[in-house]
Amino acid sequence: MKRKYEAMIVLDMKGKEESVEQLVAGISRDFETSGAKLEQIDHLGKRQFPFSPRHVTSGYYVNFQIEADNTALESMRSKLKLNENVYQQYYQRIIA
């Protein structure tokens, strides 16, 4: 059963030569290959962290609104855990 989710992805841009657009396009392709349907992508910009865990002082926030089932969502979570450009990922189900 497909449900709507909101995915907040924080990208670590420290020392990366790729642009933000290239990284977001790659993550979008990963979502689609996992079986999720992208509905909206919001670029929230670069924000400073209140403290620097793992020596990272800031991150680029991107909000994805997707429609997916549980297996596609779990597949995407595990795939993004291995992506070195993704610093954090949060998922929340949208209840309408």
Helix/strand layout:
Layout: E1 3-11, H1 20-33, E2 37-48, E3 58-68, H2 70-81, E4 86-93
Antiparallel strand pairs: 1-3, 1-4, 2-3
What does the model show?
- The protein is 27% helix and 42% strand.
- It is built from 2 helices and 4 strands; from the N terminus they run E-H-E-E-H-E.
- Strands 2-3-1-4 form a 4-stranded antiparallel β-sheet.
- The two termini are 15 Å apart.
CATH superfamily: Ribosomal protein S6/Translation elongation factor EF1B
Which sheet architecture does the biggest sheet show?
A: 4 strands, antiparallel
Briefly, what CATH class?
A: Alpha Beta
Q: Quick check: average pLDDT?
A: 92
**CATH fold annotation:** Alpha-Beta Plaits
- Tally the helices: 2
Between the first and last Cα atoms, what is the distance in angstroms?
Answer: 15 Å
Order of helices and strands: EHEEHE
* Contiguous runs where pLDDT drops below 50 for at least 5 residues: none
- Over the alpha carbons, how many angstroms does the gyration radius reach? 13 Å
Number of strands: 4
Number of domains: 1
Per CATH, which architecture? 2-Layer Sandwich
> Biggest sheet, strands in spatial order?
2-3-1-4
Class by SSE composition:
alpha+beta
The amount of helix comes to 25-40%
State the shape: globular
Beta-strand percentage range: 35-45%
